[in-house]
């Protein structure tokens, strides 16, 4: 269905909309603009160095933040592969050979299995 034109309004199924040029107030955003760009006659090159350095600092900061986040994620992922503390505690056994006389055999239990040590 085509919209019906009546004078200065276009009427459609979505509602009425004004089509006059200049009847919409444009807000003034000069409060939010940098002081270097408020003058419409000034050259763009005058503030290009400041804007370019800001962009470089912002990109560098985001790069450092991204690298740190990636490092943290990789460290957490790799550390999940390591053995837990209880497994590591069972994996270690310390035996002083000085306590075993020369020429004797001793049997120790390690991870539930016998460990035979001969002091030569």
Structure description:
This protein has 120 residues and is of the alpha+beta class. 32% of the residues lie in helices and 19% in strands. The protein contains two helices and five strands. The protein has helices spanning 48-79, 85-91; strands at 4-6, 9-12, 15-18, 105-110, 113-118. The strands form two sheets. A three-stranded antiparallel beta sheet has the order 1-2-3, with no helix packed on it. The chain has a two-stranded antiparallel ribbon with strand order 4-5. A hairpin with a 2-residue loop joins β2 and β3. The longest helix has 32 residues, at 48-79. The chain is rod-shaped. The termini are far apart. The mean pLDDT is 80.
User: Order of strands in the sheet with the most strands?
Assistant: 1-2-3
The number of helices is 2
**Percentage beta strand:** 15-25%
Order of helices and strands: EEEHHEE
Helix content: 25-40%
- Major sheet, described briefly? 3 strands, antiparallel
Q: What is the rounded Rg?
A: 39 Å
Shape annotation: rod-shaped
Q: Provide the structure class.
A: alpha+beta
Distance between the termini: 103 Å
pLDDT < 50 runs, ≥5 residues:
none
How is the secondary structure organized here?
Layout: E1 4-6, E2 9-12, E3 15-18, H1 48-79, H2 85-91, E4 105-110, E5 113-118
Antiparallel strand pairs: 1-2, 2-3, 4-5
């Amino acid at each position: 269905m085509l919209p019906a034109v009546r004078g200065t309004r276009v009427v459609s199924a979505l509602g009425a909309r004004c089509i006059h040029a200049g009847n919409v107030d444009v807000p003034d955003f000069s409060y939010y603009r940098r002081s270097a760009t408020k003058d419409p006659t000034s050259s763009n090159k005058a503030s290009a160095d400041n804007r370019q350095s800001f962009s470089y600092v912002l990109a560098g900061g985001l790069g450092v933040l991204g690298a740190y986040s990636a490092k943290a994620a990789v460290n957490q992922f790799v550390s999940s592969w390591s053995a837990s503390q209880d497994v590591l505690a069972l994996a270690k056994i310390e035996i002083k050979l000085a306590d075993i006389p020369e020429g004797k055999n001793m049997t120790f239990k390690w991870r539930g299995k016998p460990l035979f040590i001969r002091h030569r």
